[in-house]
């Protein structure tokens, strides 16, 4: 269907395809060993893998953020050691963003880096996690605090996986698509505007168009700033507050749901400083609400604990020393950063997204 090139650490293609198995095969044959790492929910969809004479090791990992732990990465390292994985062997990650983050980190850390291929099966994984080479696991102190930049050698996106998703998971993935609309590609917002999730999901061509556009945004940004010296931070729009919500709710809500509230939060912050108009602020709530994403903290476990939220915000990877940084918009498609935001200002913003 489409092929988008990323140049970040290495050049690789993101293929949007109708045949993930056929597209994977050339990367896996001619290897001595291939580890296929997939999440428990994908187990029943896994075929019998065979790649020429390669020894295939299939490794199931827990679903969701629970998989991104030191226990699970240790299990993977032990399996790679037991099977004698060398620098010319391959890891294949099949699953949502948590699986590509985890398996990518196994590839990044084993022998200081071996090849891996990402096969995302969720919308969030397709448009965000699998592209750009961010790999890692969580720490008890916060999300994604342990990790490495290690690009895959290929990303294979087969939209037919999306039929396995619940409406809730599909909708959560739309948060990352809408984020690309706010930070870069306003046409994404025009395409989604006025549509609910059913109207989007039932239109396969529209879904592929949204995936292509979001991947194009991501590819452009990570190709210009692979290691997030500055530009790549824009991909974290809404994520500073979003990650904090995920942490205080003990990861009981989807990443995309937290990012949705995080985008409203940061739009409120920008509006209160006069950086964006009331109309841009309103468009955040309207477009996110229309697809069924949360725009306030109502009913989010742990979210009434401001102190816990504030500590989680302060640990964000964009913070420098004691200065908390936020990616904000000056307009749709125009990103900026603000620094030195006080706790008082943050708390006042928090109060505007409580209900
Ligand atoms: N998910 C944000 C990034 O890849 O930079």
From TrEMBL:
Gene Ontology BP term (one) = amino acid biosynthetic process
Recorded hits in Pfam families, A to Z, give: DHQ_synthase (PF01761), DHQS_C (PF24621)
Q: Signal peptide: which range, if any?
A: none
Keywords, in A-Z order? Amino-acid biosynthesis, Aromatic amino acid biosynthesis, Cobalt, Cytoplasm, Lyase, Metal-binding, NAD, Nucleotide-binding, Zinc
Q: Name one GO molecular function term.
A: nucleotide binding
**EC number(s) reported in the record:** 4.2.3.4
Q: Name one GO cellular component term.
A: cytoplasm
Q: Where is the 3-dehydroquinate synthase C-terminal domain?
A: 173-319
Q: In which pathway does it act?
A: Metabolic intermediate biosynthesis; chorismate biosynthesis; chorismate from D-erythrose 4-phosphate and phosphoenolpyruvate: step 2/7
This chain's protein is named: 3-dehydroquinate synthase
Please name the source species. Answer: freshwater metagenome
């Amino acid at each position: 269907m489409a092929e988008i090139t990323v140049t970040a650490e290495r050049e690789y293609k993101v293929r949007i395809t109708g045949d993930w198995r056929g597209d994977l095969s050339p990367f896996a044959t001619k290897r001595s060993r291939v580890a296929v790492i997939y999440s428990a929910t994908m187990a029943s969809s896994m075929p019998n893998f065979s790649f020429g004479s390669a020894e295939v090791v299939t490794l199931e990992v827990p679903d969701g953020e629970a998989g991104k732990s030191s226990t699970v990465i240790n299990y993977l390292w032990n399996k790679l050691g037991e099977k004698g994985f060398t620098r010319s062997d391959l890891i294949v990650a099949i699953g949502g963003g948590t699986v590509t983050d985890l398996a990518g980190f196994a590839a990044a850390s084993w022998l200081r880096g071996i090849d891996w291929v990402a096969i995302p099966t969720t919308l969030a994984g397709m448009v965000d996690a699998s592209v750009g080479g961010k790999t890692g696991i969580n720490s008890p102190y916060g999300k994604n605090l342990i990790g490495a930049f290690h690009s895959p050698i290929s990303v294979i996106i087969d939209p037919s996986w999306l039929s396995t998703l619940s409406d809730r998971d599909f909708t959560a993935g739309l948060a990352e698509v809408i984020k690309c609309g706010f930070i870069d590609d306003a046409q994404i917002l025009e395409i989604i505007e006025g549509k609910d999730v059913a109207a989007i999901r039932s239109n396969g061509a529209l879904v592929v168009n949204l995936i292509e556009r979001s991947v194009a945004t991501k590819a452009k940004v990570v190709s210009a700033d692979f290691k997030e010296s500055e530009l790549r931070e824009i991909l974290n729009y809404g994520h500073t507050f979003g990650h904090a919500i995920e942490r205080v709710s003990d990861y009981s809500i989807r990443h995309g749901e937290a990012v949705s509230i995080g985008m409203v939060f940061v739009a409120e912050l920008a509006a209160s400083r006069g950086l964006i108009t009331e109309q841009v602020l309103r468009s955040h709530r309207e477009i996110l609400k229309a697809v069924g994403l949360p725009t306030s903290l109502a009913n989010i476990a742990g979210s009434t604990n401001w102190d816990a939220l504030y500590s989680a915000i302060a640990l964000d990877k964009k913070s420098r020393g004691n200065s908390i940084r936020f990616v904000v918009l000056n307009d749709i498609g125009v990103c900026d950063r603000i620094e030195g935001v006080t706790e008082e200002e943050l708390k006042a913003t928090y109060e505007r997204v409580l209900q």
